[in-house]
Fold Squalene synthase HpnC.
Amino acid sequence: MEVDQSENFPVASVLLPKALRAPVGIIYQVVRTAADIADEGDWSAAERHARLADFRAGLDAVAERRAAPVHPLLFGKLAGVVAQYKLPLAPFYDLLRACAQDIDSRRYADRAALLDYCRHSANPVGHLMLHLVGAATPENLADADAICTASQLISFWLEVADDWKNDRLYLPLADLKRFGVTEAQIAQGLADDAWRALMAHEVSFVRSTLVRGAPLALRIPGRLGFELCGAVHGGLRFLERIERAGYNVFRERLELNTFDWCVVAARTVVMWLSRRVGVAARSIEGNA
């Protein structure tokens, strides 16, 4: 699955059903435009909030079936997708809330606060995809939340150093205190015993969350379900790489190499053909 690293949003890939590529592309443009307002450019926080308010007015126009006062072409395309696929607008408003949070929030007090951020910034993506394929059942939505949240947290763990340079930290402050890790250590890129204990704790939580949502991939038919299997195993492989690097995510950004992708592909095929997920995290990820 090809994913925009800022928004965890799937863009056109060879496995994405052809009929979905155009609507997914339009939704991605909407999400990317809002995210750029929050993150890009030299605007002040007040200017960013004002622009997000204008963007919200565009969503309101879609909801009220009238011309948008801003980005009329983009919102016009979105209105067509919303009408054709009967998409709810709540996920878009959730994403806007996350963009506003990006402007003001640089730290998260505890895991609950961080998961609440993920609920607005990552989980709406899964909801929109399920609505696009007519599979937005309560069970599927819950599993999609687990996959999307885990995927975003994995991205955070991989980008601790880069986020720190932008004065952002997506590790719960309560966990830092619990394991005796200070922000000064993060600034120094110090992967000592305390850091490794902290990251082992975070990785364990993310792994169990990802595995909990994995059954969704076997309930979604066709290429999209197969791609979800790949997303699950890609995430699990990244967690393995973090562990094998001794949780040192400061030295360099960990990436999957050719061998890793072969492992991901093999596990994806096995999961898809066997129609089995496994009952424990280790049983699904193996030891390759």
